[in-house]
């Protein structure tokens, strides 16, 4: 008998048995040669621990709390552009631009390029069984464009360091050595994508949950202390990350299934978060669910580095929306375009109206 939550939590936590280093197991001709293969997402300890520590200081709860005023300012600026219309596309007008503007400022790159950032981020997480060869080639072109851009940024920061994450990465040392070119590019790409994609889908998915449970909007508007719980429940109910990949470093078993050494494993976070054994009445959206040990941000050494920032941005976005978008909220009765991805769950559009 399978236990989705227990099995997925074990796979995410036991890095000694379930490796993230694809290049150890994928045949050479099929390996990812892009800088993204050199990110901490695709590493095991000890190298993972060394590189993660380089950027962890930028995302501590204390550092994130210092950003609250700026996140609030950006959110208000975005809503200024739509509040008089009584409608917006919540993805295009808020859920996407907010996190990408925040991470761009941290990296020290111009937010005016956010349309480029969106294309690059979408390309990195796109792809499912319906993806065509033409779409794959377009993805590779976009990803190449992103790394070309960051190569230019890194050269500029070498010559003229600034007070930003890119300059900090250039200056950083691990065991007396600077990061190599692949690692630097990989970090820049990872921070850009992870800094916006998950948060965009968290905010969008949260609004979907509220649309499906309309009475919850007034409960939250009246009692803001319930907002953090609503965010956690959205992370469980509509997990922004659906799945990740691991490789068995040794022969093992999952439930009654024998796993050979080197075998690819896809733990489905979205399934684990609906496991009735862990979450009674799992198909009900419950903003006061306790306990709620969801896996929406992962678990173990790869737990999402930006989780405190994502939570802050979602909390501020929802709070400012309550302050400025009166009355009932409704997602328009039009087809929503889901993101085509094995990795992330969300929608590309979310037309929202408010008022009487």
Can you tell me about this structure?
With 356 residues, the protein is mainly alpha-helical. It has one domain: Cytochrome P450 (Cytochrome p450, Orthogonal Bundle), CATH 1.10.630. Helix content is 48%, strand content 8%. It contains 15 helices and 10 strands. The chain has a 3-stranded antiparallel β-sheet with strand order 1-5-8, covered by helices on one side. Helix 4 packs across helix 6, helix 7 crosses helix 8 and helix 11 crosses helix 13. The longest helix is centred in the middle third of the chain and has 27 residues. It is globular, with a radius of gyration of 20 Å. It starts with a helix and ends with a strand. The mean pLDDT is 92.
